[in-house]
Amino acid sequence: FFLFIMGVAVPLALGKRLERGDPQGAVIRKILSRTFLIFFIGLFLHAFPQFDFANLRIPGVLQRIALVYGITSIIYLKTTTRQQVWIGAACLLVYWGLMTLVPVPGVGYPNLEPTTNLGAWLDNLLLPGHLYSQTKVWDPEGLLSTMPAVTTGLIGVLTGTWLRTRQDDYRLLTGIFAAGCLLAFGGLVWDLAFPINKKIWTSSYVLYVGGLALLSLGVVYWLVEVRGSRWWVKPFVVFGTNALFAYVLSGLLVDLYSV
C-alpha cells in the first residue's frame, strides 16, 4: 500500500511542476536527490547503533521505496500512460518467466523456495554478507523482486494520473473500483500458477494487493470527497504528511531499546 500511494503521489506532484514549466532536467535532479536521500536513510537505520559496515544490510524497506520512487518517477516523465501500462505488464511477465523458467545456478531447476530461488541466488552473488540478518541467505527486499515492485508503484502512478483527469466523482470512482476488482481477480487467477507471496513479491501478489489498494482508496475517496465525512481524518493527515519521519523514529526507538 505504501508503494502504491507513493506512486499515486508522483503525477500529483510532478504533474504540477511540469505544468508550470519547470525544466525537466531540474525535475530529474530533484527525483535523484530524493531517491539517494531515502536510500541513505535506510542504510543509516540498518547501521545504527553499531555501525558494523562489514555486515551492513544493503537492501531494505526504505531502499526499495527509494528505488521504486526513482524508477517510476523517471518512467512517468519519459513515457505515455499507455507505455506505462506496457512497462508494468512487462515487469510482471519477465519476473514470472525468470522465477519459474530459468534454472537456478547450483540448484539446477527453477523454484520458489526462499533460500534457493533465482532472486536469492542473485542477492547472494552480488551482496554476500549484506542481506537480512534474520535470514542471512536471502532478503525480502532483494534486487530481483524490485522489478515487480516497480509495477506496484506504476499502478499507483496510473491511479494518480486518473485522479488528475478531473472527471466527476461518479466516473472517477467507477474507474477506481472497476480497476481494483479486475486487478484483485487477476491476482487470484495468477495465484494458481504463480502463488501470491509477499516475501518474493510475486506478480500475482502485485495484482492482488494493487487491486485491494485501489478498492481501499476508492472507499476513502467516497467517504471524504463524496460524503464529506472528514471528522476522523486529521490523525491520518498528520501521520501521512510525516510518514518518513514516523518510520525513521520507530526504527530508531526499536534499535535503542534492543541495545
Which features does this protein show?
259 residues, mainly alpha, 10 helices
Description:
This protein is mostly helical and 259 residues long. Helices cover 68% and strands 0% of the residues. The chain has 10 helices and no strands. The longest helix is centred in the first third of the chain and has 24 residues, at 24-47. The protein is globular. The model has no long low-confidence stretch (mean pLDDT 94).
User: Got a strand count?
Assistant: 0
Helix content: 55-70%
**Backbone structural class:** mainly alpha
- What's the story with the biggest beta sheet? none
Roughly how many Å is the radius of gyration? 19 Å
Low-confidence region ranges: none
Number of helices: 10
Write the layout of secondary structure elements.
Blueprint: H1 2-19, H2 24-47, H3 61-78, H4 81-101, H5 118-126, H6 146-163, H7 169-190, H8 203-226, H9 234-240, H10 243-258
Summary, kept brief:
By secondary structure, this protein is mainly α. The protein is built from ten helices and no strands. The chain is globular and about 55 Å long.
